[in-house]
Amino acid sequence: MDDGALARRRVAAAAEYPHGMEQTGTGDLVKVATGGPDIDGIVFDATGGAKVVVAVIDRERGPVMRTFDLTALSERSEAGDDDRALQLLIRRTPHSNRGAARAGSGSGGGRAGHKRASMHRTTGK
After folding, report:
1. Residue 3 carries which DSSP code?
2. What is the pLDDT along the chain (125 residues), one digit of tens a residue?
3. Which residues pair with 54 in a beta bridge?
4. Are 45 and 53 in contact (CB under 8 A)?
């Protein structure tokens, strides 16, 4: 591959994520641009779309999960003061499985061993 083709490829790859992080993974330390001051957070769920679930500190409610655009995130390298509380929130929050709310329907998710709801039980005629 010549240098020109390699440079065009890099520009095309950089165009996919213009302002935010290139790749975000679960557990990454991030700063979230909110319109006001940037807030520290930890990525909880990055499903590969344009939205990312991040654990952040809400001034009124404490540690919470919020959904942000991928473009609003930037990396941070140093641990913040609230990271311990955010890690505890992540530990006690069950990871969302797609389809888990619909017990037994679809593939995966639901209760193990129960593919459908139980039938009506007669009273013994």
Report:
1. H
2. 565 555 555 544 444 444 555 677 888 899 999 888 889 999 998 877 788 999 999 989 999 999 998 888 999 888 888 999 999 999 998 876 654 444 444 445 555 666 677 778 888 76
3. 43, 66
4. yes
